[in-house]
Amino acid sequence: MSVESIISLAGNQRRVLRLTILDGSRQEKVIEVEPYSRQRTDQGFQLLCRDRIDPGYRIICLTDILAAELTPYEFVPRLPVTV
User: Fold this and answer.
1) Residue 47's pLDDT band (boundaries 50, 70, 90)?
2) Does residue 32 contact residue 18 with C-beta atoms inside 8 Å?
3) Rounded Cα gap, residues 79 and 21, in angstroms
4) Count of domains for the chain
5) DSSP string across the chain
6) Could you tell me if residue 60 is inside a domain?
7) What is the pTM of this model?
8) Residue 44 is part of which domain span?
9) What value does the mean pLDDT take over residues 33-54?
10) 80 belongs to a structural domain
11) What's the CATH number where 37 sits?
């Protein structure tokens, strides 16, 4: 299953995602997020999500996501979910 498919599935099921991403210093980092929306920009697609480990909202370029997996944890949306 592709990263985009897993993100969509997580949004539809209101489930937390565990993502392996490249951070600003290009190091691998594992985060858990609530997915909210996917937006197209000049740089490609970006994911708006809420980080559950380091509370706050993030915008992540899909090209920086190395792996995605569904967790068994559900979330109550704080914003409309449109992924």
Assistant:
1) very high
2) yes
3) 23
4) 1
5) --HHHHHHHHHHHTEEEEEEEE-TTS-EEEEEEEEEEEEEETTEEEEEEEETTTTEEEEEEGGGEEEEEEEEEE---SS----
6) yes
7) 0.92
8) 3-72
9) 95
10) no
11) 2.30.30
